[in-house]
Every structure is written in C-alpha cells, then in structure tokens.
Design brief:
The protein is of the alpha/beta class. The chain folds into two domains: 116 residues, no CATH class; 236 residues, Spore Coat Polysaccharide Biosynthesis Protein SpsA, Chain A. Helix content is 46%, strand content 17%. The protein is built from 13 helices and eleven strands. Strands 3-2-1-4-7-6-8-5 form an eight-stranded mixed β-sheet, sandwiched between helices. The radius of gyration is 22 Å and the shape is globular. The C terminus is likely disordered.
C-alpha cells in the first residue's frame, strides 16, 4: 500500500506542477492575443492586381456567403478562380450563382479531374493556376469569410520594394478566429480555434518563434511560388501550408503574419466529424513540430489538474490547483473573446472543450492515419500522404 501511495505521489505532483505552469501559459497567451488584436492593419499605398485561388470540394451551409465575401472587395483589380475536380460537385451550383450575381467581376470556374499526388487540394490548385491572370496570388480555404479591406491588407507587405529589407516579404499569411455556424459541435470547434490554436500561434510569435503558414490565407507572388518548386513540390504533403512557408523561408524571404484576422465559419455536424477533423490537425502538427507538440501538453492545465485530483483522491492540494486552473481558464477565455470581438463562450463548455482537446492530443500519438475530405490516408515516416485503399470511403460532410 505504501508503495502504491508513493507511486501516486510521484505522478500527482508533476501533474500539479505542469497544471500550474499551464495557468501561467494561459495568462501569457491571453496577453499576447490582446496585444496582437491592437496591431494596426496595414494597407498598400499602391493596389496591386490580385488573383484569388479558391479550391472547393463539397458544400456547407455557409459556402455561398463565404465566397460572396471575397467578391465584395474594395480592391480595384482582382480575379477569383474557383476550382473543383468534378462537374457534379455540390459547390458548382453555388459558384454559378456567385458568378451570376457579380457579372462585373473577373470570376471563373475550373472543372478538372486531373490529379497529381495524394493531396487533392494541391492537385486542384495546380489545375487552377494556368487560369490565373495576375502576378500576386492569394490562396484561401473555402470556409473563410472576409471583410472588404481583406485583399488590400494581405497584399500590402508584398508591395514593399525588395531592396527595402535584407529579407523581403515572400509570403503573407493570416490567423483566423472561429465563428460557429450553430450547434454544440460547431461551438466546441470554434472554441478550439479561439482558445487553443490562435493563442498558441500568437504566443509563439511573441516569443520570437517563426510564425507558421496557414491555409486561411497565403499571399505570394507567382515567381516566389515557382522558385519553391510550385504546387508540384507539395503534391504529396499533408501540411501543404506549412511546407510552402518553409520553402519560402529557404529562399531567404520572410513569412509575414498579417494582423488581419479571417473568420473561419465552423459547421461541424457531429462529434465524430469534429473528432476526425481535429485529430487530423493534431497529427499534422505532431508531424511538422514533434517536440513542440509534445511540450504543448502544459497548455492543457484543466485536464492535468482533473487527472491529478482523480489520482490524489480529491485531496486539498489537487482541488486547490483544479480551482485555480478553472478560474484562470474562465477569465482568460473571456478576455480572449473580448479581444477577438466575439460573443462570450458558454462557460460550462470550456471544461468539456479542454477534456476533448486532451483526448485528441493523446489519441494523436496512436496511429498515422488521417481522414481528409471523403478519403483516408496514412502518413509515411517522411511525412507524405499515402492513400489508404483498405479503408472504407467516408460519406457525409467533408472533414
């Protein structure tokens, strides 16, 4: 019995210490988000012609308004190229309606099934690129929604003269805030973005860590894309946005994190869809930054404290730390919501969100398969996607 108690103490105290460190992290990340939200949004002195590439597959309830927001830009010269791999794709009627609504804009739809590599999004982009008319390319995911100043803002760093910096801006990327499209699963998914992903990214930037590159927005010149090897070099990668950012850095150019926040309109129909979606994210991050991902366990102070309290039979020290973590979680979440100009999160969902995040974090270490859209892939040791022909095709909303 004494040996068992000693073993429990050996586990409990490190968990409590990690939870306390996690509380410090919550406040640091919260402060970083507040500072980031106050950064002035730049605007280019000269508006450059832009081509927006919108790879699509399937439809969700918010697709029409998402695409429409890209057509309502206060930019003098822009083109939007929509792309699908199948003429029967549910996104096609939506795009047709958008083209009819905005006849004054340069909008086109590419339907091409040719696929090079396992990454269907990259294959789609490769098929769309020949239609692009302009030198500046902006790539944005289908679930993003933007304001009219978006293009002018994200292209501003690319208008700088190359000689004005030892490391010119090669790519501009944006973080995004989650906006639930309704329902508890979408609410939980939005909370993961707003209180998990976004604060981690902003806190890393505040500590001088190279910012990532995010599919919400990737703006770059066509010549820069070609110098990285183009879409062909990304054909089999899972983390294509991360790989593109790294390729730009290898050219001696900067990846600029714009202060512009894109809205990610989140629509998760079920717990299983949410779990598959976030498990893919978690395994992607584990792949590209394994040590940082493992260390991020301390960003889950509430589950760590719950585990410590359970092992310690609800003794006073563990309960005290658990209370501290819950208070820190509620307070910092409220401040982040205010900084991001979002409605306040349901307080009772925060512990549920944290326990779910910890479960996904743990599950990400077991297995190398991911569900993406309606297909399942395995990730080989070199980080490339391999289609899993043995697994059944998944139906329903793309994930």
């Amino acid at each position: 019995m004494n040996i068992q108690l000693q073993m429990l103490d050996f586990l409990v105290w490190p968990l409590l210490a990690a939870s306390a460190v996690g509380c410090v992290y919550l406040w640091h990340a919260c402060n970083a988000v507040e500072r980031f939200s106050r950064i002035a949004v730049p605007r280019a002195a000269t508006a450059l012609p832009v081509t927006v590439l919108k790879p699509l597959r399937g439809e969700d309830s918010a697709l029409y308004e998402n695409l429409r927001s890209f057509c309502r830009q206060d930019h003098p010269c822009f083109q939007i190229v929509f792309g699908v791999a199948d003429a029967d794709d549910l996104a096609v009627p939506v795009v047709r309606a958008i083209i009819d609504e905005f006849p004054q804009h340069d909008l086109s739809l590419v339907v091409e099934s040719k696929q090079q590599g396992a990454n269907l999004k990259i294959a789609n982009l490769g098929n769309m690129l020949p239609v692009a008319r302009h030198d500046i390319l902006v790539i944005a995911d289908s679930d993003m929604r933007v304001a009219p100043n978006y293009l002018a803002t994200v292209t501003a760093p690319l208008s700088e003269a190359p000689e004005s910096s030892a490391r010119p801006a090669g790519l501009v990327t944006c973080l995004y805030r989650g906006v639930s499209n309704g329902g508890v699963w979408s609410d939980l998914a939005s909370m993961h973005i707003n209180h998990g992903f976004l604060p981690q990214a902003v806190a890393a930037q505040a500590m001088g860590v190279d910012t990532g590159c995010f599919g919400a927005t990737m703006a770059l010149r066509r010549a820069t894309l070609e110098a990285t090897g183009g879409f062909k070099a990304l054909a089999d990668t899972l983390a294509d946005d991360h790989e593109l950012g790294q390729a730009v850095r290898r050219l001696g150019m900067r990846v600029v994190l714009s202060p512009y926040l894109v809205d990610d309109i989140v629509a998760e129909p079920s717990l299983s869809a949410l779990f598959r979606h976030e498990l893919r994210w978690a395994r992607t991050i584990r792949l590209v930054a394994p040590w940082g991902f493992a260390g991020s366990v301390v960003t889950n102070p509430v589950p760590l404290a719950v585990l410590a309290a359970a092992l310690d039979a609800l003794q006073t020290p563990a309960l005290a730390v658990l209370a501290l973590t819950l208070l820190s979680r509620f307070a910092t979440a409220r401040r982040i919501d205010r900084a991001l100009r979002l409605d306040h999160s349901w307080w009772w969902l925060l512990p549920v969100r944290d326990l779910l995040s910890f479960g996904i974090f743990t599950a990400s270490f077991f297995g190398r398969s991911v569900a993406w859209r309606d297909r399942r892939f395995r990730i080989n040791p070199s980080g490339q996607l391999v289609a899993d022909s043995q697994s059944p095709v998944m139906r329903g909303r793309p994930v």
